[in-house]
Design a protein that fits this description.
heterotrimer; A mainly alpha (292); B alpha/beta (283); C mainly alpha (379); A: 292 residues; mainly alpha; ABC transporter involved in vitamin B12 uptake, BtuC; two-stranded antiparallel ribbon; 4 strands; C: 379 residues; 18 helices
């Protein structure tokens, strides 16, 4: 147990980061029924921007820049790559998402020159080393889950109590009817992408502060794990995504702790497949039926 | 039930959560009969079809085809508590049978759909030919290597014959979805016939047709019934069609059978008239 | 009768064109050295064509959106490599695992008994087919749970299986079989591009025949409308499994041939990015068009490996701009083109039509196939 403690702490922290990414997946899926394959790459881009800005600017400028740029990127992706395909079959939308992911990775490769960018100036204080219950860790490990929960509560409050949040709920129940009832569907979707990208940027800052470097493929695995977390919790459900993310983060770190690092991702995918086969709607998802 | 019916439903109930779509429905179709199932919108007619063809597993009841049970169900799991139909215990002791739609079609029951479901990327010819796939004896290797030429030829010829019968041969190479609505309905019937059924289920075959087309369709249905020795169960809203061409009629409302009998009986039944025209509460 | 005559004419012309292609191939093979870029492009493009067509069979013709392609290619590639490395070289390849568990080589065995060239090639083909069979077997197992899933769930589950497979192949305990995360190398190659073209031509022809058979029509019926297909007696589970297994079989062979082309093999290269790349090739060629997939594979590989090389190395079309044309620019340009196709020409080069001899005749006859284009345009 003693030996596993650091892994548990890391697991909770990883869970918080996955939760921040998973919310973006789950909200987009809830409304557009689209697996936004590019979301993991948005996360990666946020990390890259952080590396570039923190080396040349003070923190109080660079962090807002990271957030704003990521949000703009998420917004532009939706407007350019998904909006024109709104009436197209779902498969086209998914292909477009895969295409965007491919494009972002290749552009990032071109711009960075293909080498992983080292995280030189991680955020001070946050990345200091501290000791909890005798386990050495960085302060960010503690901050992450707390910040995640705060942001999730704010988000849930927004969705429950604001007009645009109501629009989001309506659109995820029934896209077409919501449109007919006067919900401004385009602004609702844009807002969803903005919120998703914002949370991914926060997650990215926390994640890469704890990490030695950002590579162009750094986004795809956390992205996939977060997506699995979203499916596990019941895609379309925000609490589901958060719970799923913490479970996945914990399981993964525990498996590493037990000495099976090679299989930590394999386990995550195995979990996904078991969930899909046994209860495709996940922990908190709703059932959808086709009409004959 | 004079002779051995080809299709028999016994106490079939289909419940979705708290909604009882079909409630304790029992009916039968005798060989060579045209039987109509009528009722207002949402009465549960298409749901009954879906229970027969295996699209849904009913919550309770039995469907028999040619004397053998093909679907057996009783309330299980969550439905055990929720069940709001009748005769829940009747089939408890029986082993449930829950076949997939393709198995039921292979037994000899073919259907058409209320909202036409043709294969949209295929030509008229291919739509019918593909329905013959079920009868093909060739396996995937002999099919790929074209070893079963005789069978391929036979399938193509039978398809042409079916199209000719429906006057669709001139549209042979057109996309199925490019046909006018009425012809699409005919093509769906041809496609169903391609599986060589014994029982044909038609879901609103005359929907969207004018009186003259409806009349022609009725004559055509009677004609193919004779030619292929079919029995037919159909859902229809065109009353003149139902009255003129069916041997017997079952009327249902809110999933329950309200009346059955020959067209004359149905036409004069107060309950049927009420169900269709509505009856105010205070009468 | 007229129809039959026309058909025969088409077949003859088609065979003639294929023979012409083969003659050109052998000519190129004889004239150019094997390290020439054209030979490399032909080899790699033909492998991509096979893999893309096999993916199209599943995603395009059966409507099952699977993203497990890289995983099945990995299985085929490893099976081929493990079974073909000459016994004498195994100690060197498996240096960390005492020469590995397997101590025979199929191509070596055949070349000893059936003669140097013929036996070697026979052995290679048999090892490739075994790779396909292994991939097909795994497809059968994986298909049991995942094929019941609907569209995007199926995509993500197959993607997951591909990742699990990759993790297993890098596992140290399987090292004596897979060499863990180290390279596999020294396995034999056809040596000529003609071998690739002929073999892959046969496989693609088989897929074309399958697609146009009664089973192929059943696949298309499932794609167009599952509920109607089931109501017409088509067993969904059986046919989906069949399409999945067949597609994986050819993906496995493709993986084996890719390993053969690359010369060295590492599980790390079979990432989901590879699946995406192939998927995008299929999309650009037109989902549901086999000739589209083939043509796009050749265009894609030719431009990636050859024509657009300059974009990465400073000079392109005579323009010298090392600041702009640096490493990675080529991929960036290609992925931009892909995005433009996906967004504005979503039907790809061919839509769901096929490039046919008939179309060719009509094209050269000057009659632009208006009715054909109009008919297919509004699908």
């Amino acid at each position: 147990m003693e030996a596993l403690l650091p892994y548990i702490i890391n697991g909770i922290s990883a869970g918080g980061q996955y939760a921040l990414i998973a919310i973006g997946y789950t909200m987009v899926y809830g409304i557009l029924r689209l697996i936004n394959f590019a979301h993991g790459d948005v996360f990666m881009v946020a990390g890259l921007i952080m590396v570039y800005t923190t080396t040349s600017m003070p923190l109080y400028i660079s962090i807002p820049i990271v957030l704003v740029c990521t949000v703009v990127l998420g917004f532009v992706i939706e407007r350019v790559a998904y909006k024109p395909l709104r009436s197209a079959p779902r498969m086209s939308l998914m292909i477009s998402a895969i295409g965007v992911s491919y494009l972002i990775q290749n552009l990032a490769f071109y711009i960075t020159g293909g080498l992983p960018k080292p995280v030189l100036n991680p955020i001070p204080w946050v990345s200091d080393t501290i000791t909890i219950f005798g386990a050495l860790t960085k302060r960010v490990t503690l901050i992450t889950p707390i910040l995640t929960l705060v942001l999730v509560f704010v988000l849930v409050y927004l969705i429950k109590n604001t007009k645009i949040g109501m629009g989001m709920r309506a659109a995820s129940k029934d896209f077409e009817t919501a449109q007919l009832m006067g919900v401004k569907i385009n602004s609702v979707i844009s807002f969803t992408f903005i919120v998703g990208s914002f949370l991914a940027a926060v997650g990215s800052i926390l994640y890469f502060t704890n990490y030695p470097s950002v590579a162009i493929t750094s986004g795809s695995l956390p992205g996939l794990r977060a997506f699995i977390a979203a499916v596990f919790g019941g895609i379309g459900s925000i609490p589901g995504a958060v719970v799923g993310a913490f479970i996945i983060g914990l399981c993964e770190e525990l498996i590493k702790g037990l000495g099976y690092s090679t299989f930590s991702d394999a386990f995550t995918f195995a979990l996904l497949i078991v969930v899909l086969c046994v209860k495709p709607t996940g922990l908190f998802g709703e059932k959808v039926t086709d009409k004959v | 039930m004079s002779e051995n019916p080809i299709l028999r439903l016994e106490n079939v109930t289909m419940q979705f959560g708290g909604v009882v779509a079909v409630n304790n429905l029992s009916l039968h179709v005798n060989p060579g009969e045209i039987v109509a199932l009528i009722g207002p919108n949402g009465a549960g007619k298409t749901t009954a079809f879906n229970c027969i063809t295996g699209v849904y597993q009913p919550t309770n009841g039995i469907v028999e085809f040619e004397g053998k049970p093909i679907v057996v169900a009783h309330p299980e799991g969550k439905m055990k508590k929720l069940y709001a139909g009748e005769n829940a215990e009747l089939y408890m002791s029986r082993h449930p049978i829950d076949p997939t739609p393709d198995k039921i079609t292979k037994l000899g029951i073919a259907r058409t759909f209320q909202n036409i479901r043709l294969w949209k990327s295929m030509t008229v010819f291919d739509n019918v030919l593909t329905a013959k796939h079920m009868l093909a004896k060739q396996n995937v290797f002999s099919a790929t290597l074209r070893l079963a030429r005789a069978e391929d030829k036979q399938m193509a010829e039978e398809t042409e014959a079916l199209l000719a019968e429906q006057d669709l041969l001139k549209y042979r190479d057109d996309l199925a979805t490019s046909l006018p609505y009425g012809l699409q309905r005919r093509l769906e019937i041809a496609r169903a016939l391609a599986t060589k059924p014994k029982l044909l289920l038609l879901d609103e075959p005359a929907a969207g047709m004018n009186p003259q087309e409806t009349q022609e369709l009725g004559e055509f249905v009677a004609q193919i019934k004779e030619k292929y020795g079919l029995s037919i169960l159909l859902i229809e809203h065109h009353m003149d069609f139902v009255m003129n061409f069916s041997d017997r009629i079952y009327a249902i409302d809110f999933g329950k059978l309200i009346c059955s009998g020959t067209p004359d009986v149905i036409a004069n039944d107060q309950r049927v008239i009420d169900a269709y025209l509505g009856v105010s509460e205070d009468e | 009768m007229i129809r039959n005559n026309e058909k025969r004419k088409e077949t003859i012309l088609g065979i003639f064109l294929l023979l012409l292609l083969l003659a050109v191939m052998t000519f190129i093979d004889a004239k150019l050295p094997s390290y020439h870029i054209a030979i490399k492009v032909i080899k790699k493009a033909s492998v991509y064509a096979l893999v893309a067509v096999s993916m199209n069979l599943l995603n395009g013709f059966t409507g099952l959106f699977s993203l497990g392609q890289a995983g099945f290619m990995l299985l085929g590639a490893y099976t081929y490599a493990v079974l073909s490395i000459p016994v004498g070289k195994r100690a060197g390849v498996y240096q960390y695992f005492d020469g590995g568990w397997i101590q025979f080589s199929i191509p070596e065995f055949f070349s000893e008994h059936l003669g140097e060239t013929f036996g070697l090639n026979m052995g290679i083909i048999i090892a490739l087919l075994l790779g396909g069979l292994v991939a097909a077997f795994f497809a059968y197992l994986i298909g049991l749970p995942v094929l019941r899933l609907k569209s995007d769930y199926l995509a993500i589950a197959t993607l997951g299986f591909a990742e699990i497979l990759r993790a297993f192949f890098q596992w140290k305990k399987l090292g004596p079989l897979t060499n863990g995360s180290n390279l596999l190398k020294s396995y034999p190659d056809f040596g000529s591009a003609t071998g690739y073209i002929v073999l892959i031509g046969i496989f693609i022809a088989l897929i074309v025949l399958l697609v146009n058979s009664t089973y192929g029509r059943a696949f298309k019926a499932i794609r167009d409308d599952e509920i109607a297909a089931e109501a017409m007696g088509i067993n969904l589970a059986k046919h989906k499994r069949m399409a999945f297994i067949i597609s994986s079989f050819f993906a496995g062979i493709g993986g084996g041939m890719l390993a053969m082309y690359m010369g060295t093999l590492q599980a790390l290269s079979f990432k989901s990015t590879m699946t995406y790349e192939i998927l995008l090739v299929v999309v650009m060629g037109g989902i549901g068009s086999i000739t589209g997939s083939v043509i796009t594979s050749f265009l894609y590989i030719a431009s990636m490996e050859w024509l657009l090389r300059g974009l990465d190395s400073g000079t392109f079309l005579g323009i010298n701009a090392p600041g702009l044309f640096k490493n990675g620019f080529r991929m960036a340009v290609v992925s931009l083109i892909i995005m433009v196709v996906v967004l504005f020409f979503s039907k790809g080069i061919m839509g769901d039509r096929e490039f046919s001899v008939k179309g060719l005749i009509r094209l050269f006859g000057g009659k632009k196939a208006k009715e054909n284009a109009g008919g297919d345009g509004n699908v």
